[in-house]
Amino acid sequence: MSTVLNEVLEANKQYVEDFGEKGDLALPPARQFAVLTCMDARLDPAKYAGLSEGDAHVIRNAGGRASEDAIRSLVISYKLLGTKEWFVIHHTECGMELFTNEILGDLLASSLDTATFDGEWKDTGSTPGSDAGKSIDFLTISDLAGSVVEDVEKIRNHALVPPYIPIYGYIYDVKTGRLIEVEAATKIGQIK
Ligand code: ZN
After folding, report:
1. What is the Å distance from ligand 1's center to 176 Cα?
2. Using alpha carbons only, what angle is made at residue 134 by residues 72 and 37, rounded to the nearest 5 degrees?
3. How far is the CA of 30 from the centre of ligand 1 (A)?
4. Beta bridge partners of 36
5. What angle do CA 81, 76, 22 make, to 5 degrees?
6. What count of other Cβ atoms lies within 10 Å of the Cβ of residue 115?
7. Which of 21, 39, 81, 96 is the most buried (most CB within 10 A)?
């Protein structure tokens, strides 16, 4: 069995033993807020934002970007499950700053093996590639604070997002764990 698979299942056994009363949690998040953030393994929203099971919705993707799918989740989050405040949290040293659509499209066209990075991306894979990546917008980031502003603005202006939900824009500093406000984003995200 895969080492990781084994470790995960072992960890889960322990989690089940300590599960306590969590089976009684309600479906709607008790603290009525949602966080959209990056999938980066260094970020743990439960820890950096003080969440326990049942507290809040956490929506994660590469970059913490306001993709159509992220907005789909946010709409369900307020409309059916009652969240009243939202956070968009990007972070320093995000991998999404390290490539462009063109670079990733070319890497995927070269092979479907993992590429290497030593200041620039290189593909030395041996599997056949595919051009399918060339038509995808990977929502890369060139300006970190600007990307938070852009995403808060996109959510704020979405037809299915109500004006009374405040959207806060933050950057998580991977060197200190601190959340730093992007004031221009929070300003755009304020209730109307
Ligand atoms: Zn990231």
Report:
1. 15
2. 35
3. 27
4. 59, 88
5. 40
6. 17
7. 96
